[in-house]
Amino acid sequence: MSPWTPQRVLDAATAMEWQPDGAIEVRTDDYRLIRYPDWALDPTFPAAQVTRSRSDRSVGDLVDEVLAHVRSWGLLGVAWWVSPASRPEDTEGQLRVRGGKRIDTVQILARELSKRLPDLAVPAGVSVELVDDERTFLAASRVTVRGWGRKEPDEASLATDLATALSDLATWTNFRVLASLAGTPASTGGATLNDEVAQLWGAVTLPAFRHRGSYRAVLAERLRLARDHDAELALVKGRAETSGPILLRAGFTHYGEERCYWLPREEFRRPPVVP
Fold this sequence. Notes:
Elements: H1 6-14, E1 24-27, E2 31-35, E3 48-53, H2 59-72, E4 77-82, H3 91-97, E5 101-112, E6 126-130, H4 134-148, H5 155-171, E7 174-181, E8 184-194, E9 197-205, H6 214-228, E10 233-238, H7 244-249, E11 253-264
Parallel strand pairs: 3-4, 9-10
Antiparallel strand pairs: 1-2, 2-3, 4-11, 5-10, 5-11, 6-7, 7-8, 8-9
């Protein structure tokens, strides 16, 4: 019997939390709220997000408390993620009652690495390499910025991020890979090695190179490197309309969904007062 029960996989998925440099985090026994820095934002990535909520308190109390933080940051609302681990059990329904609208859905997907790795039929013209020096780091960063529509970082930020990336690679806590098509950088993605779990993140492909095998190359190389560095499980949150089908064909199993609701501040939900 596999040691990776569905509950163990879901617990590992709950632990996948990204806190970039410059973020503001509010972590309590009931929830985790994070205000992401402006450099990490893109048109589909809200600045304030509740990434988990597990509480014996009412959803209304949690919402009021979270929105007080959001108001202090001068933001219009918060993105609130719900998953099979969210508590109370009526969290999702209560968010809708408070005016929440679903804006995103990801699938929780995992694959044991003790099994034979999949043949993803990467085309011959696609090459993939580890991001381990300035050249590959800058190329991967450009793909990330352009692929997600983020602001271009300044030279100081790039230098800091490069130093961090090389330090993480030296200890194999985090790594990234870069795929190129006919020598042109096309796709990138990373992984965090957290004990026996390889958390896959940040995969993006430039629009001009989509559906040409570069994402498959990035996925295959991350699985290989994760297994080579003693990971037992690859875990990722993928979207059904993009990476999900490829991941399922690669032997990943679907363990559930996480859904995201946009919850505006009260003053932006009330109708105007007519004198």
